[in-house]
Structures are given as C-alpha cells and as structure tokens.
Amino acid sequence: MSQSSPLVGAVIVGTAQVLLAVGAASRPGRRNLYIANNASAVIYVGPSGVLTTSGFPLQPNDWFVWDSGEDLYAIAAGAGNDVRVIETL
C-alpha cells in the first residue's frame, strides 16, 4: 500500500468515547476523515471528552467529512454501533 492510499476501517462506538481512526491512532499527516454512521442509532461526534449531550449528532446512514488533522471522537447512548471511517492524506 502506498503512503497516499486511503485507510479504510470500522469503529464500534458505545457509551464511552472512542477515537474515530483506522487503528489505535490517527494516521500521521491525515487531512480528511470520512465518517459514515452505519448503525441504526444516533452517534455523537466531537473533541476528546465528547458526550451525548454535547456532541454533534450523526443520524443513522448519515455521513460527513472532517477536513482537519485534529482527532475526532464518537460516543452513543448504547453499545455496538458500527461507524465506518476513511482516512486520507
């Protein structure tokens, strides 16, 4: 895989915040993070410390692009929510 190839993966979001990244850490030099809520529940995204009461709601089947190298986290009201991510340079 070349350095410029996108990284694609799934993140399981539950009641504790989780980093939205492919793997344990964000890709160095990442420019864009594509996020798709593949679950049947709302997830909430935001900076570290995000809560369901403070995060940006992402409805089921919705997606958006985070065009920042800053880390983004997600949380939900229940466990087992499938979120798909793509990290690009």
Give a quick precis of the structure.
The protein has strands spanning 7-13, 18-19, 32-37, 43-46, 56-58, 63-66, 73-76, 81-88. The chain is mainly β.
What class, by secondary structure content? mainly beta
The largest sheet is:
4 strands, antiparallel
Task: From the 3D structure, determine the CATH topology.
Answer: Jelly Rolls
Oligomer type = single chain
Instruction: Work out the number of β strands.
Output: 8
Distance between the termini: 13 Å
The CATH architecture can be given as Sandwich
* Secondary-structure element order, N to C: EEEEEEEE
Helix fraction bin: under 10%
* The top level CATH class name: Mainly Beta
Query: How much strand content do the residues show?
Result: 35-45%
Low-pLDDT residue intervals, each spanning 5 or more residues: none
Question: Helix tally?
Answer: 0
Radius of gyration: 12 Å
Overall tally of structural domains? 1
Mean pLDDT: 95
Shape: globular
Overview of this structure, please?
With 89 residues, this protein is mainly beta. It has a single domain, classed as Sandwich (Jelly Rolls). 0% of the residues lie in helices and 43% in strands. The protein has no helices and 8 strands. The protein has strands at 7-13, 18-19, 32-37, 43-46, 56-58, 63-66, 73-76, 81-88. A 4-stranded antiparallel β-sheet has the order 1-8-3-6, with no helix packed on it. A 4-stranded antiparallel β-sheet has the order 2-7-4-5, with no helix packed on it. The chain is globular. The two termini are 13 Å apart. 25% of the residues are buried.
